[in-house]
Recover the amino acids of this structure.
């Protein structure tokens, strides 16, 4: 991946800001009795209103503008028509384009008030893994393994299953660019990141084993093979000279 130009970075900043606003509104809609289909309809309206492109619509045949994955479904969920229940663990993953450049972000929300200590550990640990992975970006010269090891250390601390077959990635002119950003690894190893590069860091974890399967049906998704609950958080990040700038925040 080539570093982005100052003009491209300015566009991605605006893309990330607009995406974050839409994602925050979608996350706020997650509640018992609300259908993920209703959320996706609202997201579609906001995408159009904000002059953005629904990048995942039609990508590998995906039929919607946003991925919404519930409970054991971890990512790539087609928004189901079934209403969300109290205690459901809902992942909202949004990938949008603006002026030919792409940003990507995701959040996990527990619907309603019904929860458990295990679910709180899952969500807190996965979110903290994202935060610490971003902190691990020390600027130009950071290695991918530094990010991967930081995310893995946190998820291991929370005794979570670290998803190994799904990774973060470079992005900008396409959804997935080099390099891959795994959520496990060894610090000081892997590709070198340079200032101006843009990457998606996205820890994914489960309360059980890390293996995943692809489910079928009216609302297919990537799911935990053992049926355990999963969580997913993601930000698009710009590598700067001395650190990282989160692009996907309002």
């Amino acid at each position: 991946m080539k570093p982005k130009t100052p003009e491209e970075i300015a566009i991605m900043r605006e893309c990330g800001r607009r995406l974050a606003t839409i994602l925050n509104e979608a996350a706020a809609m997650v509640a018992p009795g609300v259908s993920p289909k209703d959320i996706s309809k609202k997201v579609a309206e906001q995408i159009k209103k904000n002059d953005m492109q629904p990048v995942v619509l039609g990508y590998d045949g995906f039929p919607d503008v946003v991925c919404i994955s519930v409970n054991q479904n971890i990512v790539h969920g087609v928004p189901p028509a079934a209403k969300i229940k109290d205690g459901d663990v809902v992942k909202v993953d949004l990938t949008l384009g603006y002026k030919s450049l792409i940003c990507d972000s995701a959040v996990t929300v527990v619907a309603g008030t019904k929860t458990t200590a295990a679910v709180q550990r899952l969500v807190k640990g996965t979110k903290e893994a994202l935060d610490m992975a971003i902190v691990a970006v020390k600027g130009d010269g950071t290695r991918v393994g530094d990010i991967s090891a930081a995310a893995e250390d946190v998820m291991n601390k929370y005794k979570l299953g670290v998803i190994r077959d799904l990774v973060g990635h470079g992005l900008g002119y396409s959804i997935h660019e080099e390099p891959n950003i795994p959520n496990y690894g060894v610090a000081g190893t892997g590709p070198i990141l340079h200032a101006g590069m843009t990457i998606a860091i996205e820890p994914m974890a489960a309360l059980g084993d890390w293996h995943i399967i692809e489910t079928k049906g009216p609302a297919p998704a990537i799911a935990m093979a053992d049926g355990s609950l999963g969580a997913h958080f993601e930000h698009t990040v710009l590598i700067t000279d001395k650190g990282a700038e989160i692009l996907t925040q309002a």
